[in-house]
Specification:
Keywords: Transferase
GO molecular function, one term: methyltransferase activity
InterPro entries: Methyltransf_25, SAM-dependent_MTases_sf
Number of helices: 9
Oligomer: single chain
Strand content: 15-25%
Protein name: S-adenosylmethionine-diacylgycerolhomoserine-N-methlytransferase
Order of helices and strands: HHHEHEHEHEHEHHEE
Distance between the termini: 40 Å
Number of domains: 1
Shape: globular
CATH architecture: 3-Layer(aba) Sandwich
Strand order of the largest sheet: 3-2-1-4-5-7-6
Length: 223
């Protein structure tokens, strides 16, 4: 018998497949102009030799390819709920010779078994790049990310911010446009991360980028 979580997961997966069935072919060309802060986040992963790195919502694999170039001896993993996006990711990574270096899996970022998917219980780094704003139960996604972090590991997040220092007309236009793609900035992200920090003893670094257009956050667990 299927439970409510399974139904929600299937519905969201179908929605993402529908949204990206054609967009995935031009996704990287168009998104580079407004998904700001991704490269900064990847640079700060500090993933040395043997470091295990997992991306939740890996999309086309663009970030994983960049991470592979900048952290050459790290072990890279990625998952996405959209089979359409994963097909693009697998093809893109294979084209640049990373087909055997990066392991991909189809799964819901809010509820997955890393042992079943990748043969690992935990990861040294987990990152989420512009995916929380597309995941309905995004707070559960953050909790799941923290649950699969190894002691001393860190969760890295970049996404749309509150746009608090941008003109009101720009903020309104941006959010109306994003809503067309089922994207909604998470205005209470900082408060949620602060609560998790208190509960887990993790340190929190939070920075607003580009006058609030984007936010970059890092949660580090104690060893």
């Amino acid at each position: 018998m299927r439970n409510a979580d399974m139904v929600v997961t299937d519905t969201h997966a179908a929605l993402m497949d529908d949204v990206y069935r054609w967009q995935r072919h031009v996704y990287d060309l168009t998104r580079k102009y407004y998904l700001l802060g991704r490269d900064r986040m990847i640079d700060r992963l500090d993933a040395g030799p043997g470091t295990t790195v997992l991306e939740l919502g890996c999309g086309t694999g663009r970030n994983l390819a960049l991470a592979a170039g900048r952290h050459r001896q790290a072990q890279l993993f990625g998952l996405d709920i959209s089979a359409q996006m994963l097909a693009t990711a697998q093809a893109s990574l294979a084209r640049v010779g990373l087909g055997d270096k990066v392991r991909l899996a189809e799964a819901d970022a809010t509820s997955f078994d890393p042992q079943a998917l990748f043969g690992r219980a935990a990861f040294d780094r987990v990152y989420i790049s512009y995916s929380l704003s597309m995941i309905p139960d995004w707070q559960r996604c953050v909790s799941q990310a923290m649950a699969v972090l190894a002691p001393g590991g860190s969760l890295h997040i970049v996404d749309f911010g509150r746009q608090e220092r941008l003109p009101g007309w720009f903020k309104a236009a941006l959010r109306a446009w994003l809503a067309r793609f089922h994207v909604a900035p998470r205005d209470d992200l900082r408060e949620v991360l602060e609560s998790i920090s208190r509960e887990t003893g993790a340190s929190l670094e939070h920075e607003s980028l580009f006058r609030g257009y984007a936010v970059h956050a890092i949660l580090c667990l104690p060893r």
